[in-house]
Amino acid sequence: MNDFDARAQSWDSNPMHWERSEAIATRLLQMVPVNPTMNALEFGAGTGILSSMLSPFFSTITMVDQSIEMVRMMQQKVQDRKYSNLIPLHLDVEQDSLDTQYDLVFSQMVFHHLHDIHSTIHKLREILLPGGYLAIADLYPEDGSFHGSEFKGHHGFEPDELGDWLKINGFSSVDTKPCFTVHKIIGDTPRKFPMFLMVAKKQ
Question: What's the pTM value of the predicted model, to 2 decimals?
Answer without folding.
Answer: 0.94
